[in-house]
Structure formats: C-alpha cells, structure tokens
C-alpha cells in the first residue's frame, strides 16, 4: 500500500527498488496441471528473490511447478480480495498480512493449516515467534497463514550526535525522554526526530496509533464505543503533532516511510521512530550513517511495550483443489531451509527475517545484522496484537483495528491529522471530525 500502507518492509524496499512493474513467471490462472500451484504475490524484493530461487530448488526437489503472478501491493490486495471472496480458486496461495488473515478466516476464504503443520515435523511451528503466530491465528484458534517475514517498530538514533550533546538514550525510553532528547539535539540543520505525517491508514496512523495505545487510548472500547476524541487519544495526538511540528523534519505533512528514511540516511534528523526493517537499510554498506546508529525499544507511557506488528504471510484459498501442494510450497518458503538458501545464495542481509526464533541464533545472520538484530527481535517478541493498550479491544491489531472498515476510517482520520501537522486545523477539530466517522463504523458492530 504505497500511500496507505501498514508500516512494512515493502515500502522500505520501494525506496531502493522503485515499485516494479508486475512480473509473472508462468500464467497465474487455473492452468498448470495437477503438479503445480498458482501463487499470487506482492512484488517486493524479498518475494522476487523467492521467485528466482523456486524453480532450481523447490520445483527441482518436489516436481511441483509454481506459477507466480506478481503485482504491486495495492493491485495484489484487490486481486486477492476478488479471487478469495468469490472462492474462484484461480490462485491456490496468496500473500496476505496479519490485517487480512483473521477477517479472511472468519469469512471462510482460507484453509486452516493446523493439520498440515501437525503432519510436517520439519516445518517447526514452535520456532515461529509467538506474536507473529498469534496474529495469524483466527478467533477459532486455528492458524490460517504462515509468515514470510515480520517486523515491529523501534527508535533509531544517531549515537554520535547524542554523545556530542551529552544525551543518553535508555534501551526502553519513555516518550517524555524522547521529546526531551529531540529538543536538546535539534538544530536548524539537523532536526531532532522524524515521524510520519503523510496521510494513510498505514502512514501517519501507524506510528500515531502506537502512541495512542501507550497513552491509554484506543479507537474503540470492547463494546464498540468510539474513542477518537477521548482525552487519552487527544493527549497522544497532541503530543505527536507538537513533537513533529516543533522538532520534526521539514515537509512533515507529506513525510512517510520513504521520506523519513531519506532524511535519516542523509543526516537531516537525529532520531526516527519507525519499522524495525529500516535498520537494515540504514546499516547497509552504502549507507552514509552505517555504524553511527543506536537502537531503542518503541517509547512508552502507560504500557510496558508499544511496538507495532506486521507480517507478510502465505495463505491457502479454501477453494483450492491443490492444498497439499500449496502447503508444500508454503512450508518450503516459510521454513528454516529457505532462509539458509537465501543466506548462501543472495546474502544474509536479505534473509526474510522477523518470523523465527532460530534466525536470530544463526552466526551468519548475527554477523550481518549484529548492531540491530537483538533490538529487533526484542521488539517483535514484545508486540501484543491482542492486547496492545490498557483496555480490552473489540478486534485484533496494534497499529490498526482488524475490521474491513479501518482502511477507509483510518485514511480519513489520517487526512485530518496531517492537516493538524500542517497547522491547517487544530487537533481538537481533527479528532472531533474523526469521532463522527468512527461512530458510524461502531454502529455497525454494536450489539453483535
């Protein structure tokens, strides 16, 4: 989702590889014979590595041909929704996230994977990081997708700039400490912090919702009372808006992941709170700030942790007549052996990480990502997709609310927030407008 995306690896990758035109390996339709599977997949670099490695490895070993249809994120989401909602069965496997998985499962669009897992001792489901597994488990307790990679969020900061100012950043900072550091380190040339301000349910609303959570706020109470203009939501939003207006990057109302990545890489900001995947880009060999960074956990106020959670995963369409072959592909693509294959053939820096405990124990992986691997693992393990705040929630999700209406609701509210960052409206007016929108959504669910 380039403009309204859940914070994620695909958008970060887009800065290095501009959204590629759709690429196909074989026809994506129902053709291909009995010994084949059709996979509909998002076009980010990690998935393209998978596409390149499949024929010479998975197909060679199993005899199962994989017909890939690879599309940009917005397009692939639309196509997956169309095919899975109609149960057309054109695609056996598709890339879905932890946002869609519980909803698709509830609608009966996905095949549960528990039986496949129990018969596949080599897959090692216990190795999947618990928050990731939890986020791909539906209300019926069954697992409906397997992760290809995962991420959380944390704080990245310039150690050299902090040392020059005599500032120490704790491993688990509060937002008050972050704001104080931003004030001390900020100059006209190097701003204190970069925070997303770009409209989008997965742009500004992603980091902001984690701040709302830890301030004690929520989009909805358990019984579907809208809380967008409640005191806690308002306090968190005012804090966020003031922080980015006073010490944030220039052009903040238009800044998303890509813009903050550029600001940080070019030395224009001293801190950045965003996706854990960003660390690999900042610590890349060609990064001007490689080796100058420190990493701290997502800042908190009232909660123990506040990092978000996102994963691209593989689901099997319930209507698929090739579920056994589909599982074999998923087991391979999400397995430990595939990570080793990528490490040896593409490079350990490109391993689809963030999903397995064993990844963080591999010496080769730790050597390539030693400066941030432990902090990223801690962030992902500490994410709480079912309990991200101080009160019970009516739907799963940390940086989103796991209902279909959130894409539109979050986007509309985000437009109000961006206007507040630009100074065009007050935070009070922005959230009062958002409250009306949230109440309309809540009305659909009350009494269910």
UniProtKB/TrEMBL annotation:
<dbReference type="InterPro" id="IPR050490">
    <property type="entry name" value="Bact_solute-bd_prot1"/>
</dbReference>
<feature type="signal peptide">
    <location>
        <begin position="1"/>
        <end position="27"/>
    </location>
</feature>
<dbReference type="InterPro" id="IPR006059">
    <property type="entry name" value="SBP"/>
</dbReference>
<dbReference type="Pfam" id="PF01547">
    <property type="entry name" value="SBP_bac_1"/>
</dbReference>
<protein>
    <submittedName>
        <fullName>Sugar ABC transporter substrate-binding protein</fullName>
    </submittedName>
</protein>
<keyword id="KW-0732">Signal</keyword>
């Amino acid at each position: 989702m380039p403009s309204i995306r859940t914070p994620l690896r695909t958008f970060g990758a887009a800065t290095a590889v501009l959204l590629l035109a759709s690429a196909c390996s074989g026809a994506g339709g129902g053709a291909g014979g009995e010994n084949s599977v059709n996979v509909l997949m998002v076009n980010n670099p990690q998935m393209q590595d998978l596409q390149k490695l499949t024929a010479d490895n998975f197909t060679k070993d199993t005899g199962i041909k994989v017909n890939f249809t690879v599309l940009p994120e917005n397009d692939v989401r639309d196509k997956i929704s169309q095919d899975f909602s109609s149960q057309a069965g054109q695609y056996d496997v598709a890339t879905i996230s932890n946002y869609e998985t519980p909803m698709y499962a509830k609608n009966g669009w996905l095949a549960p994977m528990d039986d496949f897992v129990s018969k596949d001792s080599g897959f090692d489901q216990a190795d999947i990081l618990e928050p990731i597994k939890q986020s791909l488990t539906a209300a019926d307790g069954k697992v409906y997708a397997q992760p290809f990679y995962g991420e959380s969020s944390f704080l990245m900061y310039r150690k050299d700039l902090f040392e020059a100012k005599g500032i120490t950043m704790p491993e688990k900072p509060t937002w008050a400490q972050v704001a104080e550091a931003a004030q001390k380190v900020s100059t006209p040339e190097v701003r204190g912090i970069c925070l997303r301000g770009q409209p989008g349910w997965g742009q500004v609303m992603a980091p902001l919702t984690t701040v709302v959570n830890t301030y004690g706020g929520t989009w909805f109470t358990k019984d579907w009372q809208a809380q967008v203009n409640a005191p806690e939501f308002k306090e968190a939003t005012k804090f966020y808006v003031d922080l980015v207006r006073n010490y944030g990057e220039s052009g903040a109302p238009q800044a998303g992941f890509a813009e903050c990545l550029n600001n940080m890489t070019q030395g224009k900001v001293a801190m950045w709170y965003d996706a854990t995947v960003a660390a690999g880009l900042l610590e890349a060999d060609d990064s001007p700030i490689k080796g100058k960074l420190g990493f701290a956990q997502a800042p908190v106020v009232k909660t123990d942790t506040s990092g978000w959670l996102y994963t691209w995963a593989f689901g099997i369409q319930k209507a698929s007549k090739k579920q056994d072959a589909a599982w074999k592909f998923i087991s391979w693509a999400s397995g430990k052996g595939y990570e080793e294959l990528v490490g040896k053939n593409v490079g350990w820096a490109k391993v689809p990480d963030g999903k397995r405990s064993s990844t963080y124990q591999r010496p080769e992986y730790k050597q390539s990502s030693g400066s941030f691997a432990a902090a990223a693992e801690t962030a992902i393990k500490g994410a709480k997709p079912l309990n991200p705040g101080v009160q019970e929630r009516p739907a799963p999700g940390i940086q989103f609310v796991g209902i279909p209406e959130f894409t539109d609701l979050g986007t509309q509210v985000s437009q109000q927030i961006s206007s507040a960052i630009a100074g065009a409206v007050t935070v009070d007016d922005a959230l009062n407008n958002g409250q009306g929108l949230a109440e309309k959504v809540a009305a659909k669910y009350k009494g269910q």
